[in-house]
Every structure is written in structure tokens, then in C-alpha cells.
Amino acid sequence: MLLTVSVGNTNIHLGVFAGFGDHAALVRDWRIHTDPNLTADELALTLRGLLGDDIERVTAVAALSTVPSLLREIRAMLPRYFGDGPHVMLEPGVRTGIPLLVDNPKEVGTDRVANALAAHANFPDRPCIVVAFGTATVIDAVTAKGEFLGGAIAPGVNLGVQALSDHTVTVRRVELLPPRGVLGKNTVEALQSGILYGFAGQVDGLVERIRSGVPGFGGDDVAVVATGYQAPLMYDECRTLTDHLPHLTLDGLRRVHERAKATRAR
């Protein structure tokens, strides 16, 4: 089995795949809170607790981290607890088959690269717009040929809620649920409306700008894919989203691993 590990600023998303290629299937997945101070041993202990006896069946690991301190710890953990692999760390310079048509490819987050790879594989020969709802809301464009064109990065939903709560005296954090209507009849509903519909409007506005301003993205075949831990909250509120793939990053890591394995076999 293949263990995939995607470390983000807020959550660590873990998944176990069985099979290979078209026959690969995600068996289980988990999300845990990101602690940037975790050591390699603590991370391995957490994985063992989640996987149980299945940890003995893990033959390879594919991982990425947008948190530099945990990237170092994952590198130390892999040979210590999972043997020689073959393991793959998705970092700048790793071949994914996705050309990064940006000023500095090394600046592109590896989670964005994994998402682009998986989106193109899931929607071949179609342009894709990937909307990742995480700590930040990241909207990226991938051509029908699988070229990464760049994207837009905005604060995520939780950051907006936190900023509003931290910088106003009378506003408190609220449960993020759709209110009865766009015009809140009390403070809680007004906050829910502003947060949910405001962020949805931001996403729809950016997607529409991409579709109207970027060649090749104006047709009816464009896939607008939502992913990330906040996607279930926002999917129904955004008018431009066409698909929800909650495990897109893990799928991308699986494909990076399979590509690396095939390259070694040549």
C-alpha cells in the first residue's frame, strides 16, 4: 500500500492507496491538526496510531509539506520508520509532467503542483481551474495540455473569520452555516452571510475573470474543481464550481509516486 502525506499550514491530510494506476483506490484517509513543532518520531507515532496494523502493509510513502520544519522531519522519518521505500518527496525539481509556466517555478507550492497534476489527469484534454479552500483560498489554471499557468491567492475563510474577530470588539466567532437569507436578521446571521456569501462571491469573481481573460478558458468544457478541507462548506455557495474532489492532493501525490516508480523501472 502507498501512504500519502500532504502537510498544510492548518491540517495534515493522510491517505492510504491500494492498487496501481487505473486500479488504484483510496482505502482510508484522515485529517489531523498541523503542529509545526512535531518531530519525526512524534509524526511516526501519530501515523502508527491511525494506521494500526495496516502500517506493516505500507510499502512506500509519497509526501509533500508546505511547512518547512515538517518537511525536514518527514525526510528524517521515512528511512527510520518506513525503510528504503521507494519513497517520493514532492519538492521543487521533482518531475511531475506538469510544465510550470510561471516566472519562478520553485516558488509554486508543491500542493498546487499535485492538485494541477491530479486535475489534469481527472479531466484530460479539458482546461481546469482548481479552487483549493484551505488556510488560503488558491485558484489555479491548468490548460487542456496540462500546463500550469499560475493563479490567485487570497485569505482563506478561517483567516477572514479570525481577522474579523481579532480586530473588532463586539464581533465574535460564529458557526459557519448558511443563514436564512442574504440579509441577516441578527448579528450571527449577518456574519454568516458576509463570510459565506462574501467568500463565495470572491471565488466566483476570480473564476469569471480567468474564464473571460485567459485564452482557452472561455468554453463550456472548463472544469472548475473544488478541493481542500473548507470545500464542503463553500461548494454549494459558489456558482462557478463544477466538481468537488476532496482527495485531489492525495491523488496527485499518488500519481507523482507512480511516475517516479515507472521512471526507475526503465
UniProtKB/TrEMBL annotation:
EC category name: transferase
Chain's gene name: coaX
HAMAP family in the cross-refs: Pantothen_kinase_3
Annotated binding of ATP, by residue: 6-13, 135
Pathway noted in the entry: Cofactor biosynthesis; coenzyme A biosynthesis; CoA from (R)-pantothenate: step 1/5
Pfam families per UniProt: Pan_kinase
Localization in the cell: Cytoplasm
Keyword ATP-binding: yes
GO biological process: coenzyme A biosynthetic process
E.C. code: 2.7.1.33
Reaction(s) catalysed by this chain's protein: (R)-pantothenate + ATP = (R)-4'-phosphopantothenate + ADP + H(+)
Family, similarity comment: Belongs to the type III pantothenate kinase family.
Active site: 111 (proton acceptor)
Protein name: Type III pantothenate kinase
Residues the entry annotates as binding substrate: 109-112, 187
Lineage: Bacteria, Bacillati, Actinomycetota, Actinomycetes, Mycobacteriales
GO cellular component, one term: cytoplasm
